Amino acid sequence: MRRIAVVPGSFDPVTRGHLDVIERASGLFDELHVLVVHNPGKTALLPISQRVSLLQRSILDAGLPGNIVVASWGMGLLVEYCTEVGASVLIKGIRSQVDVAYETPMAIVNRNLAAVETIFLLPDPANAHVSSSLVRQVAALGGDITPYVPPAVAAFLQKTRV
Ligand code: PNS
Fold it and tell me: Is 132 a catalytic residue?
């Protein structure tokens, strides 16, 4: 039986911290779906299709394994996507206690909804301070985001000046 997991998130934009979690998770499963999900609680910077293409480019540039699939999911439940692709595990990166508090209710709800378990991975502490919201803010104010994002994202944000 193939072990399939999903790494869901807004990825607005993908950061070096996300890529670290994706790389670690890809080694633990036969197939890993990196899923861009609309989060109604957040004001988006990039359209979902742009986030998907930046993820694909960044994964390719970083030479990550070929068992990674990038996809997007509209307005439905995350666990519906899991059922559709046969995934029984969600993967989330945990940077701090704040992330634990944010992720725990979602993990319990997803387990109750469809018996989908959530596994928390600890990323490299070097990325503990990196978040998409910080990147959006620094980019909007003209600061240097290259330490926080893959080169394709830095080039795109600098070119489009979003
Ligand atoms: O990167 P984010 O914004 O913290 O990711 C949160 C996300 C998109 C994974 C979460 O909001 C989500 O799972 N949305 C899908 C809707 C859903 O299934 N909600 C019920 C269970 S939490």
Answer: yes
**Look-up of token digits 């992720």:** 103
74 neighbors 108 (Cβ within 8 angstroms): no
Does 42 qualify as catalytic in the annotation? Answer: yes
Annotated catalytic residue, options 26, 58, 132, 136: 132
At 5, the amino acid letter reads: A
List C-alpha distances in Å: 33 to 70, 101, 158.
6, 24, 28
Give pTM, 2 decimals.
0.96
Q: How many CB atoms lie within 10 A of CB 38?
A: 15
Instruction: Enumerate the β-bridge partners of residue 152.
Output: none
Tens-digit pLDDT profile for residues 112-122? 999 999 999 99
Distance 9 CA to ligand 1 centre (A): 7
- What's the CA gap between 91 and 83, in Å, rounded? 15
Residue 130: count other Cβ atoms within 10 Å of its Cβ: 20
Using left for φ > 0, alpha for ψ between -120 and 50, and beta otherwise, residue 142 falls in: left
**What percentage of residues in the chain have a pLDDT greater than 70?**
99
Tens of pLDDT, residue by residue over 21-48, are 999 999 999 999 999 999 988 999 999 9
